[in-house]
């Protein structure tokens, strides 16, 4: 494949020149192909440990001029046939043109511009690779497919440098996590280790720390135990392995494949060097947690959440927590473990109103429902944006109910109105003559006929404020046995 030209100062350290002309050099990696001997073993070990691109592309073409000490990479190849095609193209299309130039700087500028043009033409019809570095991640995916014989449809989620313990000897190499497989490859001084494990065969995952295996991950399968250690970020790796193992179990139970959204939304500030597929998996986990926390339908997708307080009239307190917004529900979860959960179906909402701010109640927002219940939220960081979001969802909710008796009712988003605010706070879930504190609080159930309260919820989940991708997963957790063992 063609490469964006990059400088190479030492061109012959670990490479052997096979062809040359006044402007280009074709080279082969030492140890690849015929023989190799001790040099081949050392170079192969170095390529694996350093994750060199030469392991997947042992052939390359460099551009050079006679008086220059600097070389430029212009192409690489995984086979002799591939690199020969690039070499012949350069000889047939550029050699005669380059011989016309008088200045070596002009020659190099022309070659670099030509190669960039070829790459741009090839990438014109390709889909965007996401926000990660496309070249680096694509290179890792090519290594994985070539080394383990994976089909084109097998998607790489992420890869990590680590050690695999074979007996009492650690084998330094690379762990590749795909949608369906856990793969590991190591090559040290002629000793090769290659592992491929399907996620459906994994029966347990354990992260522990012992004297023999410091900060290691144990993978249990039906017939063996595998130990991996020396991760740069063991927590991130273990979390991703849990997600993929559970995802494989759910796919097996539901008899469905891994399907990505056709046009998944992207975050406003993309995260660099993170697989787009990994972000999708993280977003799925957040959606699943949201649905499980409030017992919502499996197709409900979290749009975002923000910190706020909720006024509870039965104990007359402002409870801090998180407000969650999705296409059909507004939910609240307090920070305390024994706090409250609140679920408001958007089809029950009649008024969303911004009240006047004060030092006691900054940025308040009231939400009224059909059964004359009003909920008061405050301390909202971006109240105007939140109101716009809720208004958009209310319009969509109204359009989904053409046959409803309340179809003529239009959910409204109002500016502060003192007389409305007075009516709202006096009638929170109680009759005209009852005190707000005497309201009966129903327990949370699966029915969604109206707003629903519950006590004894989950702690505040550590998520970011906006979910970047929406996916639906079954409300099933913990299919793969996991545990954490303290250091002994």
Provide a short characterization of the protein structure:
The protein has 488 residues and is α+β, with helices and mostly antiparallel strands. It has helices at residues 37-49, 80-93, 95-98, 104-123, 134-148, 234-254, 276-294, 383-399, 418-426, and strands at residues 2-8, 15-20, 24-29, 59-63, 71-77, 156-166, 169-178, 181-188, 191-198, 202-208, 216-221, 225-229, 302-312, 317-326, 329-334, 340-345, 349-354, 365-369, 374-378, 412-414, 452-455, 481-485. The strands form 3 sheets. Strands 20-17-18-19-13-14-15-16-21 form a 9-stranded mixed beta sheet.
Tally of individual helices: 9
- If you average the pLDDT, what whole number results? 71
CATH structural class of the largest domain: Mainly Beta
Radius of gyration: 30 Å
Q: Low-confidence parts, pLDDT < 50 over ≥5 residues?
A: 51-56, 127-132, 257-273, 404-448, 455-488
- The CATH topology of the largest domain is given as PH-domain like
CATH superfamily assignment of the largest domain? Pleckstrin-homology domain (PH domain)/Phosphotyrosine-binding domain (PTB)
Just name the CATH architecture of the largest domain. Answer: Roll
Strand content: 25-35%
Shape: elongated
Largest sheet: 9 strands, mixed
Pfam family, one: GRAM
InterPro entries: GRAM, PH-like_dom_sf, TCB1D9/TCB1D9B_PH-GRAM1, TCB1D9/TCB1D9B_PH-GRAM2
Domain GRAM: 142-209, 288-356
Protein name: TBC1 domain family member 9B
Descriptors:
9 helices; disordered C terminus; TCB1D9/TCB1D9B_PH-GRAM1; 8-stranded mixed beta sheet; alpha+beta; 9-stranded mixed beta sheet; TBC1 domain family member 9B; GRAM; 3 domains; 488 residues
